[in-house]
Write a structure and sequence with these properties.
Shape: globular
CATH class: Mainly Alpha
Order of helices and strands: HHHHHHHH
Radius of gyration: 15 Å
Number of helices: 8
Number of strands: 0
Largest sheet: none
Helix content: 55-70%
Bound molecules: fe (ii) ion
CATH topology: Hypothetical protein af1432
Strand content: under 5%
Distance between the termini: 23 Å
Length: about 160
C-alpha cells in the first residue's frame, strides 16, 4: 500500500527540521528515543492490533499520526508543555502543507491528542494507538531499566504482541 500522506510528511521540510531538532535534543538521552524507529514501531503495532480486532482503518492515517505524535517533545524539553498538546500544534502546522481531506487530518490530530489518554474507549483506534506506543518499548533489553521513571508494573519485561 502506498503511504501517500505519510511520505508527504516525511518529505516536508518543516517536519524534517523538527525531526532534526528533536534528534539533537535527544542526542545524549540514555532512555528510549523518539525517532523513526519508534514512530514506525508504533504505526506497525497499531495496524496489527487494529487488524486483529477487525477494526476498519486507513493505514496511511496511522503512519502519519505516528510520525507526528512525539514531535511535541521539543516543547516539553524546552518549557514543560505536555508533548501530546505540543505535538498537535506541530501536526496542524505541518498538515497545512499536506494534500489530504480535512476529515483525515482530524483523525490524525485525534490520534496524537489521545495518545496518552488512559480513557480512550476500548476497541477504538485511539485505544490501540496508545497501547502500541507503550508496547513498542523494549524494556526487557534496556541498559538503563533501573534508572527509568516508568513504574515497574508498566515496563515491558516480556515481549508482547
Ligand atoms: Fe511515542
Amino acid at each position: 500500500m502506498k503511504l501517500d500522506i505519510t511520505n508527504q510528511i516525511r518529505n516536508n521540510q518543516i517536519y524534517m527540521d523538527y525531526y532534526q531538532e528533536l534528534k539533537q535534543l535527544e542526542k545524549d538521552r540514555i532512555y528510549c528515543k523518539h525517532d523513526f524507529d519508534h514512530f514506525l514501531d508504533v504505526a506497525r503495532i497499531t495496524v496489527l492490533l487494529a487488524s486483529k480486532n477487525n477494526i476498519d482503518m486507513d493505514e496511511d492515517i496511522i503512519y502519519a499520526a505516528a510520525l507526528l505524535h512525539d514531535m511535541g517533545r521539543i516543547a516539553e524539553y524546552k518549557d514543560g508543555t505536555p508533548h501530546h498538546i505540543a505535538s498537535c500544534d506541530i501536526a496542524k502546522e505541518v498538515l497545512e502543507y499536506i494534500a489530504c481531506d480535512d476529515e483525515k487530518k482530524e483523525v490524525i490530530i485525534s490520534l496524537i491528542r489521545c495518545h496518552r489518554n488512559p480513557e480512550n474507549p476500548p476497541g477504538s483506534l485511539q485505544f490501540f494507538f496508545r497501547n502500541a506506543d507503550k508496547i513498542s518499548r523494549k524494556c526487557y533489553a534496556c541498559d538503563v531499566i533501573d534508572k527509568c521513571n516508568w513504574p515497574d508494573e508498566k515496563k515491558n519485561l516480556d515481549i508482547k504482541m
